[in-house]
Amino acid sequence: MNNIYVWDFPTRLFHWLLVISIAFQYVSTEILDDAMQWHFYVGYWILGLVLFRLIWGFVGHVYSRFSAFVCSPVKTFNYLTGKDEKVYLTHNPAGAWSVIVLLTIISTQAVSGLFITDDIFLDGPYHSVVSSDFADAANWVHHNVINALWAFIVIHLIAVFAYQFKGHKLVQGMVHGKKQTSEKEAFALTPGIWWKCGLVALISFAVIYSLVEVIPPEPDFYDF
Length: 224
Prior knowledge:
The chain is mostly helical.
């Protein structure tokens, strides 16, 4: 068996920062008092993380790119029904689509937060520039999509521990980045990955900062 370096450090860092951030979002709303401002801040941070992963999915290390693990629906169906018994170096087809679904749900949750209000002191940066109907719809999405997120996280954890029980050390792999497999390594980690990671991170958070702090116009210019 070979230990193949599959998950690069930027991908693993993204994963654990996202885990911590989502956990904080739960704590800030359900446990802590007067933490709503930080709930908004961390929501913007999560948007930056997701944008980073989306870009990294196209320009990052080969195994971190979406093209390396996202399969067709037919191939995914064959995998789920047992017709495809191939051992995949990166995510299997079901795991690949779970990544896409999770990123979609988290993005929807975070984006909807840009338009909501806590009805007391805090508003999302675009709450005042949309109609009340749109804000109400965003508020409904924000307070209901979260249930889908929790459900999918539970499913994700069950799947991870099921594979862990079968000997696939996914949790450890997301710590050290390596996967034990009979396959040989096809792509080595390139030295330029670090400056590329820094550049993608800078672009991602510059975009989110602009989206949250620079672009939103003054509410006085809008007619409801």
